[in-house]
C-alpha cells in the first residue's frame, strides 16, 4: 500500500528520553520506536551536501511516481499556502529536486535555507539548526539502492509505503513549499525556539519534565503541521483545476506525502468511511494526545485558519513548560 508510515515526528525530536513519570497526564499513550535508525548529533558529521550529478535514473523514476500519484489530489485538496509555495518553487515532477536551485528561492522569500543532512538529527541539533532558520533535508529516497547501502547488515524496511527515516520526497515535496510563506516560516521558527528552550532546561525543571514537555511539543507538531487540517472557506478554488468538494483543506505535511492518508480524509469527509474523525482544534487537548505513527490516523484536528494556529501557539507557549503536579 502507498501509506508512508512517517518517521516525521523526528522533526520535533528524534530521541525523547524514555520516562513514564508523567504519562498519566497524557491520553492515548502509545510507544514509539526508531530502533536501528542512525541518529546524528552535534559531534557527528551530519552535513551531507547533495551530489546532484550522481542522482540515478531509478531515483528520478521513484520521485516521479510518488509525485504524479499525489499531485491531482493535492491540487484539489491541499491548502492555498501549499499550492502557492509549490508554484513559486517549481519543484520538478519527474526528476529529483536540486537543493542549490530551491534553497535561494526560499531564502529570498522568508530567510530560511535548506541544510542537506545525513538523516535523523537528535533534538538538540535539530533545534539548533531550526533557530538559524535552516530546514534539514535528506537526499535519499525510499526504495532506492542508496537506502539499502546505508543500512547494509541492518534489517530496516525500505519500500514505497514506508521508510522509518527521512526521505527527500517528504522533506521537499511536503514541507518545503510552506517555507515560502512568511507567516508559516516564522511560526516554524518559534516552534524551534520553544524546543530549544525546553531541551536546554533554562528553567531548571529536570530531565523528567524536559522529557514530558518535549512530548507535548511533539504532539503539537504531529497534530498540526504534520497531520493538520484547515476548514475550507471556499476562497482558494481559483488555485485548483477542480474545486475542493469537502469541508477541509490539508496543511499537514505528513498527509501531503501520503496518498493513503489523503484518500482516507477524502473518504471520511464524504461519508464513505468512518475510519477517522474530524475534531475541532484545541491546543490543550492536542498537546496531551499521543499518536501512532504506524497506522493511518484515527483523528484529525481542524483549525479555522492558519492565523488561528499561529496565534494559538504564540499565546500558549507556557503549556510547553509544565512544572508537574
- Label the structural class: alpha/beta
Series of secondary-structure elements, N-terminal to C-terminal:
EHHHEEHEHHHHEEHHEHEH
Broad shape: globular
- Cα(first) to Cα(last) distance is 44 Å
Helical proportion?
Answer: 40-55%
Features:
four-stranded mixed beta sheet, about 325 residues, alpha/beta, disordered N terminus, two-stranded parallel ribbon, 12 helices
Tell me what the structure shows.
This protein is α/β, with parallel strands linked by helices and 325 residues long. The longest helix has 21 residues, at 57-77. It has helices spanning 57-77, 80-89, 99-110, 123-131, 145-150, 168-175, 182-199, 207-226, 253-256, 259-269, 283-287, 306-315, and strands at 39-40, 113-116, 120-121, 134-137, 229-231, 248-250, 277-280, 299-303.
Question: How is this fold's topology laid out?
Answer:
Layout: E1 39-40, H1 57-77, H2 80-89, H3 99-110, E2 113-116, E3 120-121, H4 123-131, E4 134-137, H5 145-150, H6 168-175, H7 182-199, H8 207-226, E5 229-231, E6 248-250, H9 253-256, H10 259-269, E7 277-280, H11 283-287, E8 299-303, H12 306-315
Parallel strand pairs: 1-3, 2-4, 5-8, 7-8
Antiparallel strand pairs: 5-6
Helix pairs in contact: 4-7, 7-8, 7-12
Amino acid at each position: 500500500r502507498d501509506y508512508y508510515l512517517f518517521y516525521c515526528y523526528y522533526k520535533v525530536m528524534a530521541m525523547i528520553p524514555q520516562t513514564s513519570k508523567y504519562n498519566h497526564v497524557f491520553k492515548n499513550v502509545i510507544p514509539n520506536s526508531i530502533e536501528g535508525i542512525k541518529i546524528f548529533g552535534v559531534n557527528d558529521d551530519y552535513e551531507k551536501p547533495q551530489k546532484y550529478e550522481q542522482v540515478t535514473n531509478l531515483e528520478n523514476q521513484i520521485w516521479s511516481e510518488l509525485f504524479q500519484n499525489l499531485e491531482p489530489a493535492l491540487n484539489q485538496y491541499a491548502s492555498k499556502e501549499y499550492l502557492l509555495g509549490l508554484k513559486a518553487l517549481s519543484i520538478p515532477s519527474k526528476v529529483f529536486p536540486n537543493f542549490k536551485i530551491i534553497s535561494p528561492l526560499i531564502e529570498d522569500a522568508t530567510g530560511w535555507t535548506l541544510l542537506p543532512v545525513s538523516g535523523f538529527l537528535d533534538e538538540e541539533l535539530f533545534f539548533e539548526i531550526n533557530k538559524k532558520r535552516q530546514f534539514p533535508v535528506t537526499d535519499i529516497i525510499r526504495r532506492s539502492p542508496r537506502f539499502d547501502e546505508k543500512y547494509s547488515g541492518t534489517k530496516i524496511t525500505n519500500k514505497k509505503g514506508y521508510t522509518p527515516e527521512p526521505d527527500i520526497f517528504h522533506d521537499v515535496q511536503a514541507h518545503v513549499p510552506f517555507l515560502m510563506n512568511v507567516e508559516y516560516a516564522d511560526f516554524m521558527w518559534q516552534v524551534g525556539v520553544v524546543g530549544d528552550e525546553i531541551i536546554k532546561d533554562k528553567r531548571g525543571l529536570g530531565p523528567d519534565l524536559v522529557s514530558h514537555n518535549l512530548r507535548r511539543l511533539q504532539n503539537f507538531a504531529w497534530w498540526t503541521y504534520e497531520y493538520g487540517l484547515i476548514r475550507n472557506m471556499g476562497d482558494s478554488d481559483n488555485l485548483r483545476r477542480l474545486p475542493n468538494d469537502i469541508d477541509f483543506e490539508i496543511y499537514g505535511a505528513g498527509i501531503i506525502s501520503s496518498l493513503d492518508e489523503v484518500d482516507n480524509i477524502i473518504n471520511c469527509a464524504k461519508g464513505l468511511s468512518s475510519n477517522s474523525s474530524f475534531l475541532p482544534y484545541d491546543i490543550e487537548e492536542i498537546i496531551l494526545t499521543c499518536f501512532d505513527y504506524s497506522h493511518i490516523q484515527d483523528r484529525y484536528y481542524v483549525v479555522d485558519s492558519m492565523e488561528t494556529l499561529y496565534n494559538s501557539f504564540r499565546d500558549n507557549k507556557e503549556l510547553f513548560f509544565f512544572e508537574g503536579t
